[in-house]
Amino acid sequence: MARLKLKRKEELLELFYRCQFLELLDQIEEGINSSIEKSISHELLWIKTNALFELHRIDELGAVFPSIEEQLPCKNCENCLFTTAKLSYFKGEHETSEQQFIKLIELASDHHMRFRGLLGVGQVMRSKLQFEKIPGVLQEISSHSDQLDEVERITLLLFEGQFYSDSGRVATEVKHYLQG
To answer: What is the pLDDT of residues 125-144, one digit of tens each?
Structure first.
């Protein structure tokens, strides 16, 4: 049974990574409306917030936040801290979000959670247009790149692409890459 749930979550994440957000939202609503465990419901809601964010349907995020927040079992464990940091980020509370991501980095017991915290800090900096600080975050993440799993590597590449595009460094970085 647990394997089936894991497979289902992997299928939903696959839709997310293929940018099939509308189909993903339909699948999540179906899952939320069926009888599922609370922990799985929390994960579905979290994937839903990310899909809504990618579709720029920010106004719909507000309806999802209370459902996620009421399901958090604690406020200071790594997973809950990550969730509250992302919720703060989605709400536009960048200072609070950055502080929570920094706390997550400090508490992280494994490299996966540390990666999430560092990437979160980078995303906040990108939103605050603090592009000059992001290379330091990327360097920190890259120093542990051998520990990243496939999904984390893809996430990092997407973030790097967004950073280089937003900061206007695309042409310079591509030129440097092609010359080196």
So the answer is: 999 999 999 999 999 998 88
